[in-house]
Prior knowledge:
By secondary structure, the protein is α/β, with parallel strands linked by helices. It has 11 helices and 10 strands. It has one domain: 3-Layer(aba) Sandwich (Rossmann fold), CATH 3.40.50.1820. It has an 8-stranded mixed beta sheet with strand order 2-3-6-4-7-8-9-10, with helices on both faces. A two-stranded parallel ribbon has the order 1-5. The model is unreliable at 272-297 (pLDDT under 50).
Amino acid sequence: MRRVLIWIVTVPLALYLALCLAVWIFQDRLVWYPGPPPTATPAAIGAPFEELVLTSADGASVHAWHIQADAPRGAVLVCHGNAGSIEHRLEHARAFRALGYDVLLFDYRGYGRSRGRLSEEGTYLDGLAALEHLAARGFDGRRVALYGESLGGAVAIELARRRPCAALIVEDTFTTLPDVGARVYPWLPVRWLSRNRYASLEKIGALGTPLLVAHSPDDHLVPFAHGERLHAAHPGPKAFLITSGGHNGGGFLQRAEWIESVGRFLRAHVDAGGDPARSAAQDSGSAGAPDPRGEPR
């Protein structure tokens, strides 16, 4: 009987520990879902563009498209989420270009035509390479806005820590990656196992960059509370745009008025040339609670 009890306890425990070990070893496959090389280009949206292969500080090869606007007000660097590739962000490029901004789409190493070993730090280095390209084309930090969706929001927040920029937009972005993992896998000690942190909540409190948080209450993967906590932790000029739809099917692109809300935010800060006084004056009401009508405040 004692031997049976030992087996009842030890076998499930051993299997659970083996599962935890497997998750720790193979967790990168649960974080990043790289898409294949793009088959469409910005020509599909009628936009002139330059195809680029950038080199990150550690030697990774970063495939990118620099999409040009007529007489651009500035540039928007798009940091995409953890799945797909830049061809799936062409509608974002269309919207930002229509608002009057050049757009730089880039794929993280291992995504699309980009090459290199994926890691959290690697995604940051790839974003920095994209920023360096924009600087070389005359878009210094005062004329650059960072936009990130989901995991890309965490990348954009880290880029804003490392380089000056005029504005930061994060959409459906999480507080930390382990917070999301713990919700999806409540039966695993995700916070102990995670090598990749993307700890946006602890970083955003040190940023003075004007911030727009866009989040949907219908997002069941990254709950609305994540966006609220990021917004609350940011000490500088900020706004909150309430959207709708699920994590992969929602966002500000759904409605013309939401796109225009994003445009107003960009014009207030990017076109202010990075002047904190002007940005604060134009955003004097932005620190309030989220507006249920979907307007930034």
